[in-house]
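Could you join me in thinking about how sequence relates to backbone shape in a protein? We need material for that, and I hope you will provide a protein of your own picking. Label the sequence line and the structure token line clearly, so we can match residues to local backbone shapes. Would you write everything just below, so we can both look at the same thing?
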Amino acid sequence: MAQACSLPFASSSVTEHLLRGALGLAGIFFAIKLGSERPIIAVVLVLGSLVALRGCPMCWVAGLFGTLQQRFSRQSD
């Protein structure tokens, strides 16, 4: 079982983190595609993406490095 993460943007597993990133990027993509036709849906998608990414895309990248750091530090123990 994965331990709780101690780094602010890290996830408990790399798979979970990558899925969160894919969900966030898909939300941003569809928000851009629907932005001119359905702006309310686009805003909801962007907000959902920010939740999935735990902030901006750069926060997601920082979390990815934190998640990888946790994974490799556990393997060396």
Q: What stands out?
A: The mean pLDDT is 88. Residues 14-76 form one domain. The first helix runs from residue 14 to 34.
